[in-house]
Structures are given as structure tokens and as C-alpha cells.
Amino acid sequence: MSDTVSGLLTIGVLVAALAASHLPLGAWLARVFTDEHHWRVERLVYRLCRVDPSSEQRWTTYAVAVLGVSVVGIALLSGLVVAQGALPLARGAAMGWDTALNTAVSFVTNTNWQSYAGESGASPLVQTVGLTVQNFVSPAVGLAVAVALVRGLARSGGATVGNFWVDLVRGCVRVLLPLALVGAVVLLLGGVVQNLGAPTTVTTVSGGSQVIQGGLVASQEAIKLLGTNGGGYFNANSAHPFENPNAVTNLVQVFLMLVIPFSLPRTYGLLVGDRRQGWAVLGFMATLWGLMVAAVTWAEVSASVGPLGAMEGKEVRFGVWSSALFGASTTGTSTGAVNSLHESYSALGGGGVLFSMLLGEVSPGGVGSGLYGALLLALLTVFVSGLMVGRTPELLGKQVGRREITLTALALLVMPALVLVFTGVGMVAPIVSSQMLATGPHGLTEVMYAYVSAANNNGSAFAGFSADTPYTNLTLALCMLLGRFVPIVLVLALAGALVAQRRRPATSGSLPTHTPTFAGLFVGVAVVVTGLTFFPALALGPLAEALS
Amino acid sequence: MTPSHTPTSTTVTNPSADSAEVTLRGAAGAMAPRADHGRRPGTAVTGPSPEAGSGRALARQLVTSVPEAVRKLDPRHVWRSPVVFVVWVGSLVTTVVAVADPSWFAWAVTLWLWATVLFANVAEAVAEGRGKAQAATLRAARTTTTARRRCADGSFETVAAADLAVGDVVVVRAGEVVPGDGDVVEGMATVDESAITGESAPVIRESGGDRCAVTGGTTVLSDGITVRITSKPGETFIDRMIALVEGAARQRTPNEVALTILLTTLTIIFVLAVMAIQPLAVYSGREQSVVVLVALLVCLIPTTIGALLSAIGIAGMDRLVQHNVLAMSGRAVEAAGDVSTLLLDKTGTITFGNRRATELVPLDGPVDGGHDRSELTRAAYLSSLADETPEGRSIVELAGEGLADNACDDLATLRRRGAAFVEFTAQTRMSGVDLDDGTAVRKGAADAVCRWVTDAGGVVQPGALEAVESIATAGGTPLVVASRRGDETPAVLGVVHLKDVVKPGMSERFAQLRAMGIRTVMITGDNPLTARSIAAEAGVDDYLAEATPEDKIALIRKEQEGGRLVAMTGDGTNDAPALAQADVGVAMNTGTSAAKEAANMVDLDSDPTKLIDVVSIGKQLLITRGALTTFSIANDIAKYFAIIPAMFVVLFPGLDALNVMRLSTPQSAMLSAVIFNALIIVALIPLSLRGVRYRPSGSTALLRRNLLVYGLGGVVAPFVGIKLIDLVVSHLPL
Predict the structure, then answer these.
(1) Sequential DSSP letters for B596-611
(2) Which is more confidently placed, B6 or A196?
(3) A168/B528 Cα distance (integer angstroms)
(4) Which residue from A341, A403, B365, B727 has the least number of CB within 10 angstroms?
(5) CA of A196 to nearest chain B CA: how many angstroms apart?
(6) Is the distance from CB of B526 to CB of B372 less than 8 angstroms?
(7) In A, residues 485-514, which contact B (CB 8 Å cutoff)?
(8) Across the interface, do B655 and A544 touch by the CB < 8 Å criterion?
(9) Coil/strand/helix, residue A367
(10) Which of A306, A313, A275, A359 is nearest to A533 (CA)?
């Protein structure tokens, strides 16, 4: 079977699996967040945490709860990481304070940027009770925020956007835990390791000795992808044979990354009582994802000339197609797991995965964050196109007035501001440029990629850039924090502004937001806004490299 | 174009010929109050007056606005538009650089950047200039006024109109100008309101009732009235009008503010993007000059819409003024675009307001010696001859068509012959005539006429009652016609069908509104039966019969609770609460001051159908903003392709592949983009003043069309424009 046929087949199987699963999963998610009843285990949690699950919160309370959970999470996790040497299962793993803080922020913000090497930086204890807990909590937070925004659109003339504790607990208990369990078993069957045994020391064929780490890999791997986290157990991430042993597990991993983000549009459609709205958002996400997969694959395949082809930095067991598919999906979902080195991609391929993140993680984006990111862009699209039909712009009968557009614009401004400022500073600060592996346009792409990855809470790395220095650790942590929580607070404020509005009935004069025309415009706005913002930087990085 | 749009005379003495022309246009608009009524349904609001289309007039306006535009270079003014302010700062920076390190390129860029700011100011100045001259006439009416105030002891003192307070009572005699807004408390007078409405025919103002309001600045022509002042000096209707047409009181409307926020955000993003270029360029080995960076920044930020935004807003209000509608706030104009329910009074808006005879229904078969259609026609004609009500006249008109000329005796002839006309009274509820030959004819309410027949021994045929019934069921008013010849017993001849006649073209207009997503509700005091029939005939979506003012408010509240925006018109004092409750309330200028106070718009022509135009203007305003925003952002794509390769082609020769326009040199490419960016503002001034063409249609069709024209057009136009400018620039001997 040729590479092209197997590549297309892989994509075909993936798309079919997603098509089959997004409707039931989307419907399940909608039920989870509207169900009147609490499960027994959930009631136990509420009682332990002294939370009244029947109370509803205003957006402010909701936001404080989100921030509270995250601050506590960062504090606990960084404490755990710093203290890991004194705790059981240490195995000699250690991190400096700045790396520890970076790691804590990274896992709490769903970025999972790793300034350390997985197996040597974090002990199995840290990996399981620290990192894995955040692997569940951080996507559940994203889900909760997305659902709160959708409630803002769905409810008419209300004051509250839901109960964060309920949303968080349900996201974990009813969605992420069961799915991760299934995912882990599937991966285990596919050959991913899962043990608590001591490292094995083997003698290699050349006579040297090598220590091979094991660990609770399969369980962490499932939620790493399902929760669009991306932090690998091993430094090599999904390129490591224990994390991702073969083409089948690779396909499963890509599926796990995409399944929740691609199901959320359905949830959205159900929650707002108009499934067509969900189709439009799905169309938007799928178009962008399709475009990015096509672009990266094309760039990599057409770069495959010479003895090695484009195989530098790619695993032989995956090949170019599956690597490109993984690359475009991991950058489009804010996962950040990698099964190949993005640094080694061709100039345009590397630019492609970079662009995929620059879209703002909406193709289809992270768990929850993809949906709210897409809805922010939808509000922007509605604002401009709504004016063109001669009405005050509105989405689902909710007006996009001064307050709404301010919050939307600010939320969309955060990421570009962080990327442009820190990349700009990074390019001239010797403290940063000395850490680049490459020179010229490729070096520029390395630095830009790091800050884009952090500000978008992606977490993948353009491997050449060595980021484990205090300056980069802290600036990247800052990007991750601001890139995550400033939009979250603004999105919740937006939910509060929207929920207070009465829903206006749709008339033939109002702009329909479910038509192909609108979905096309929606894609156009995302691409044009991203393109206009980053064209100069891209021209000096990937484009200059590709055209030279 | 109606003749009244042609300026024939001017009452304004204005030093500037161009301003005078503007005034004329405004005044001509005001003097053609009915000009738009004849507009056929389906005619789009294509923009204001013919003058706006005349390139030469506009060119002159542009030139004469330059001094004002230069004055507006004051940073305190420019600051109001963040986008233009950034250009202003950029121009300052390049000026400093050009002075410090002169080069033809730096100076050329600097000049064109200043031109960009200037053009933005010109756009605003032209828009404002249109209202200024009109304000001058109004101001003349205001300033020359003194008032005779009644003192507590009953004597009168002469005071300046500006010293009047609310509650003062003043006396105005024939030939005097009403000193302020108020209500007539005593007397009746004819008043010339042309200063405000442009309508030269005088109107009657009298104490009590719905015609008691007088407006300051209008002139009493005959008799005298005593007026209680209801508004403070400086806040009168005419003051508000002046402020409005001048644009002085202009506050940014909610949507304009929201758009400004979006444009500001885009500007911030582009400032960051351009600022990030320098370190990237330094790293790449080619530091960029400040002039180049500023040029890039100015090209990227949405200068086109930023420069034209306030002009669009002012022009939108001006368009309303041209339709003789005064909006008290810009908010109301925007709300008009969002209206989804229109409450229209039946009488005067949907129908002509008077019932008209539409049919004569003879009774079947000759009875008692052969009554037939001609006899009915003649009887109906005779009985209505002396009836001066519109209904009566319409019967004469209808019956007259069916009679031979020699049968149409006129009133005087009949009177001379000794005919005695019987007047309609509330007791008899019928009218008619007793002719000299002994024939008596009666016409009136069914029961009254039938009693007249039976009392004299006649018999009312069942067919008559059936005809009455069927007319009433159809929502019409039946009038029974009977006659008695000499000493014969009287008999019913037939029934006249009176009905409310729907104005021609109304159902098309309602269909249009439906396409725009607007529901029309007819409000009437008629009974539900009549209301339903008229509603069906006119094609409105719903009706409210036997409506009281309370019903109206309840209906508005109900619609608003469902999230709909409601517009309505009204004139009476009892309309005031509903006008205040409605999102868009248009008061008729003939209405009471309470109604005008409660409404957020006043229609100087007192034409209730104007509401439909108001909605179109509101939509057009929003569409113009959206279209130019899209155009402005779409332009950036071409500008990037012009400037980025030009900046870095020396460093990375491969980037020349991005120079898709094949611009001659890097400097020419950058300069061409800057020049295009400045000229496009001037090119779009007419469009922003006129408004984007708006045809009432569904939203999807509108969106497609505007996306195609302003979105795709916005992508393509600068590629062509920049290339053409580059061809010129590259041939300059520099």
C-alpha cells in the first residue's frame, strides 16, 4: 500500500469514527450539563466540599470559583513538584523552582508545556497524583466555561450562568473519567505500557547499558489526549514507543484529541435549542481542521525529496502522513502532544502547525476552550455581518452591543498581544536568542512557536528551542496564565452580559447564523484576522525560509 | 425627482455660494413634504437628494470644507476617533523624521499621511456642513423674538424670549412670532409653521384638544392666542432642531460606540503587529526605518471606516431631516433599523381615513312598480346632494357616474325648484330630500330608514335586510336608501355600501416589510369585524380592534416582552404614554406637545406612513457602517502584499514571490499603498454621505450582496488601485 493510500485511509477511518461519535457524545454532554439529578458519588463530593449543588451562580461567582480552583491547583502542584525528592517514588527526579512553577501553571492551564524531560523531571507520584489530576481538572474547567457561555446564549433574561462546582464535578465524573478509562484500556490493548515496576536496565546491542523507565503510562496517556492536555509521560511524548507504539494507537490518539472538541458543537446546538447552530460551528471547525491537515500534509509530502525525504524527526512506524495528521490535530486542539519533531518539518509544514495554533485554537480547539474560542469569533463575525443586513448585530437573538463587543474584542486581543510582545522581546533579548538551536528564519520560528504555544495553551514545542531557563520558564508561564485566564474571565463576563438579555425572536430580517454563507464568512473572518495579525512575523519566519 | 426639489428661490443670505446650495437642498427638502408619498412601493431608499449625486456640487463641498478640516487637525478633536488619532501621531512622527533626515520618500509619505488625516476631517466637515445653513435659517427665527408676558396683576410686559420661564403666559397677536413652545390656553389662530415644517399653508391652533400646541419661531397670521410656555429657553423644539441639523448635539450612538471599540481593538492589534516587526527585522538583519513602519501601520489600521464613521452618522441623521423627520436621538434611528413590529393607525395611514361609497346594491326584482338600479342611483344621488360629509360626497361621486348628465341636477337648481333637504341628526340618523313633486327620498342607518318605511305603511323586503347584513359582515357600513312617490307607500330601493378604502400600494409595502422581517399591526377603533376585513384587504399581519390607549400600551409591552422592538406613530395626548413606551415613537408635528415630548422622533409632515421610510433609513445607516468596515479590513490583504515584500525583499529575495502586483520598487510600493489608503477615503465620501443602496429584502440576500460588493470588492479594489498608483509613481522623475 502506498503512503498516499494508507494516509488517506487513516484520515478516512478517523473522520468516520468522529462522524459516528460526535452526535451521541454531543447529546450526552448536553444531558450532563442540564440534568436535574446528581449522581450519588457527586453528592458525596458536594457534601465533602460543602457545596450546594442546587444553587446557581452569577458570572462573577462562577469566575471567582474558576480562578480559585486554578490558583489552589497551581499552589498544590508546584508544592508537590518542589517537594517530590522527599516524597515516595522519587527515583531521583528533580526540578528547579522556576521549572516547577512553569510546570504547575502549564498543567493547570491545560497547556502541558514541559520544560523538563518527562521521565527524569517528574516522579511517578507527581505524574499520577499531581499532573494527572490536573489533566482531568483543567479540561473540565474548559468545559464548564464553555457551557456557561452557551447558557448565556440559551437563557433569556436570567442572572445566573450555572454552578461551577456542579459543572466541574460532572465534567470529570460523567465525561472525562469514563472516557479516559475506555481510552486507557484501548491503548493498553494497543501496547502502551502500564506498570509501577522499577526501571529496567538492559544491555544494548553495542554493549552499552540503558535504563528503560516504565510507569503508569496508558492511564495518563488516555487523559493526556482526551483532555487536550498533551503532557507526555516520557520526554519524547507520543513519539516514544511506550506511549504510542504503532499506527493503530496513533490513530486512537488522534481520535481521542479530537472527539470531545468536535462533539461540543452538537452540545451547543442542543443547549440553545437549535441544532443547525451546532452544525454551523462544526462546519467552521471541521473546515479549518481539514484545511490545516491538508496544508501540513501537502507541505510535508512535497518536501519528501532526497534520501531521507521528510522523515527527519519523524517515526518510521508512523510515516509522513500520520505524522502530519497528528501535527495538525495536536496544534489545532491545544493538545500539544507530538509524535514527531515539529522543528524538523519543512518550512511550510512548520508554518502550518504554527498557523494552526495562531487561529486561536478553534480547529476544533481544546476541550471547552475550542467552543468558547469559536463562539468569540462567531460574535465578531456576527458583529460585522450583522451590520451589513441593517440590524444591530445579534447572535441567537442576543444583541452584540457595546459591552458584548468590548468583551469579545478584548478576549480575542489577549493571545496576539502576548505572542507579539514576547516574540518581539525574545528576538532581541540575548537571554533568549542564545537558546535557539537554529539561526535565521528558522530560529525566529522557534522562539515564536514557543510563545504561540504557551499563549494558546497548546504546549507543543518546536523542539530546538531550549526553554528551561528562568527567563523563558517565567515568561512562558506568564503567557500560559494570561492566555488562559484573561479570556476565561472575559468569556464569563460575556456570558453574564448575554444571559441578562432577553432573546429576540428571529425574523426574516435578522441574520441567520446557521447558513453556509455565514459559516463560510465565519471561516473567512478567522483566517483573515489571524493572517492580518501575524503576516509580518510569518513572512520573516516560515515564509522567508520556504521562499529562500 | 419632484419639481419641488428644484431650488427656485432662497430666503437665506449666506456668504458662501456652496452653503447656500446646501441650504436650498435642505429647504427644498423641507418644502416638499409630500414629495416622498408618491414614491412607489419597491423604490429603494437610494439616498437623499439629486444634488448629492452631482459630482461638481460635491467637489465644491469638498473644497470648501478644507479650511474646516484643517481646523479639525487639532489633536483634541482628532482624539475622538482613535484610528484617526493614530494616523495623526504617525504623521507627526514621520514629520520629525523627515525634518531630521530628509529624503523624498520620507517627505512623500509624510505628506500623504497628513492628507489621510485631512481627508478624514473633510469627510466629517462636509457631512456637518450640510446641516449648518439650515440651522442658520432656524436660528434667525429664534433670535429676533420678544414676548409679551402676562404679569400676575393681569398687565403685560415686554421681555426677551430668552427670559421666558416654563409656566409663563404670553399673548401673541396676528403678525407676531410665537416666542417659545407652549400650549394655547385661550383663543384660536391661524399659524404659519413654515419656518419649521416648510409647509406654507397655515394651520389652525386653538385651546383645548389635540391642536393646542404651538412651536416657538412660528408666526401667528390671524387672530390672537394666549400661550402657556412649556419649555425652557434654549431647550425649545427649534433649539433642538438647530442642534440636531448642525450635528452639535450629536452623541455617538450605541452601535457607533460598539464599532469604535472594535476598530480600536483592531488598531491595537496592528500597532502591536507593527511594533513586533522591528525586533524581528533587527534579528533578521535589516532594521526598518520608522517612516516605513509608520506607513505600514497606517495602511493596516482601519483608516477608511475610522475616517468615515462620524460622517456616516451625521449623514444618516441628515437623511432623516431630508425626509422631514427629526430624531431626538441617534439611538432612535438605530433602533428603527431593528424594529420588528410596526403599529400603524388604520385611519390616515392604511386607509384614506374616510369611508367611501364603493357600491350601490339594488334589491332584487322590481317591487311596487319597478324600482331598479337607475332609480336607486338617482335616489342615492339626490339624498346625498346636500350632504357635505366625505361619505356624502363619495356617494354623489359614485352615483353621478351612473346617471346621465341631464339627470344630474345640482343643488341650487333643486333648491330653486323648492326642494327641501333634510339634515342628518343624531336622533333621526338619516338624511334626504323632499322634492317639489312630492317625492321623498331618505338615506341613512338601516333601522332608521326601515322605520321610516314601515311607519308610513310600507314593507321592508327581506332582501334589503340581507344586503345590509352582508355589507356589515364584510366590514362595511350599509346605508339604506328608500323613497316615497307622492302618496304611494314608501319602499326600500337598495343599499349603499360604504367602506374604508385602503390606500393604493399599501399591501405591497406590507409585503416588503414582511420580507424585511417586520410585522405590521393595524390599530383601529373599529369593531373587530370591520377591522378584520380592512386588515385582510390591506395585507397587515395583525390588527387590534376597538383599541383604547391602554390596549395600545399593553400590546407594545407584550411585543417588547417577546423581545421585539416596536415602532408607532401618534399625535394625540392620549398617545403619549404609548409613544414613550415604544422603542421608536414618531409624533406628528400637528400633534400635541405631550405627544411630541414623549416621542423620540417628530414627523414635520405629519405623515404616518413615514415610519416605513424611517425604518429603511435606520437600516441603511447600519449597513453603510458594516459595508465600509468590511471593505476597510478587506483592503489590508492587498496592502500586506504590497508592503511586506518591499520591506524585506533585500534580505530574503525569495519574498519577491509575494509581490504579486509586480510593483516597481520597494519605495514606490510602500508609497502607492499609502496613497491608495488616503485616496480611498475621498473616493468613499459620497457613498458614506449617501448611504449604501438598500433594497428591502431578506437578510441572507442582503448579506450575500453586500459581502460580494464590499467584501470581495474590498479585497480586489486595492490590488488594482495600488498597481495603478504604482505605475504613476514609478514614472515620476525622482
Answers:
(1) HHH-SEEETT--TTHH
(2) A196
(3) 56
(4) B365
(5) 47
(6) no
(7) 502-505, 507-512
(8) yes
(9) coil
(10) A359
**What residue has cell string 505524574?**
A127
pLDDT, tens digit, for every residue of B251-281?
778 888 899 999 999 999 999 999 999 998 8
- B531 CB-side CA count, 13 A: 18
Contacts of B120 (CB under 8 A, 6+ apart): B81, B84, B87, B303, B306, B307, B308, B681
Cell of A404: 458584548
Q: How many CA atoms lie within 13 A of B596 on its CB side?
A: 28
Question: How many Cβ atoms from other residues are within 10 Å of residue A47's Cβ?
Answer: 10
Classify residue B647 as exposed, middle or buried by CB count within 10 Å of its CB (0-12, 13-18, 19+): buried
CA distance A419 to A458: 13
Query: What stretches in chain A show pLDDT beneath 50?
Result: none
d(CA B302, CA A407): 20
Q: B residues 249-268 near A, CB within 8 Å?
A: 254-255, 257-259, 261-262, 265, 268
Chain A, 347 to 386: residues with Cβ < 8 Å from chain B are 380, 383-386
CA distance B660 to B657: 7
Contact A263, A26 (CB under 8 A): yes
Q: Which residues of B are catalytic?
A: 345
Q: Looking at residue B38, what is its pLDDT?
A: 34
CA distance B503 to B352: 6
d(CA A492, CA A498): 10
Taking the C-alpha atoms of A75, A78, A83 and A85 in order, what is their torsion angle to the nearest 10 degrees?
160
d(CA B133, CA B15) in angstroms, rounded, equals: 10
**How high is the ipTM of this complex?**
0.92
Q: Is the dihedral of CA B175, B180, B184, B190 positive or negative?
A: positive
How far is residue B705's CA from residue A388's CA, in Å, rounded to a whole number? 9
Q: How far apart are CA A235 and CA A115, in angstroms?
A: 10
Residues of B in contact with A402 (CB under 8 A): 254, 257-258, 261
Q: What is the mean pLDDT of residues B528-546?
A: 85
Question: What is the distance between the alpha carbons of residues B664 and B644, in angstroms, rounded to a whole number?
Answer: 14
B44 pLDDT above the threshold of 80: no
Q: Choose among A504, A537, A539: nearest Cβ to B655.
A: A539
B578 and B562 in contact (C-beta within 8 Å)?
no
Task: Give pLDDT tens digits for A395-447.
Answer: 988 989 889 999 999 999 999 999 999 999 988 887 776 777 777 888 888 88
The residue of chain A with its CA nearest to that of B341 is A507
Q: What is the 3-state secondary structure (H, E, C) of B186-252?
A: EEEEEEECHHHHCCCCCEEEECCHHHCEECCCCEEEEEEEEEEECCCCCCCHHHHHHHHHHCCCCCC
User: Are the C-beta atoms of A142 and A366 separated by less than 8 Å?
Assistant: yes
A528–B contact, CB cutoff 8 A: yes
- A546 touching chain B per CB within 8 A: yes
Q: Could you report the per-residue pLDDT of A25-47, keeping only the tens digit for each?
A: 999 999 999 999 999 999 999 99
pLDDT exceeds 80 at position B349: no
Rounded CA-CA distance B340/B332 in Å is 14
List CB contacts of B134: < 8 A, sequence separation 6 or more. Answer: B22, B23, B26, B27, B30, B245, B321
C-alpha cell read off for A76: 498544590
Cα–Cα distance for residue pair B629/B711, rounded to 1 Å = 9
Q: How long is chain B?
A: 734
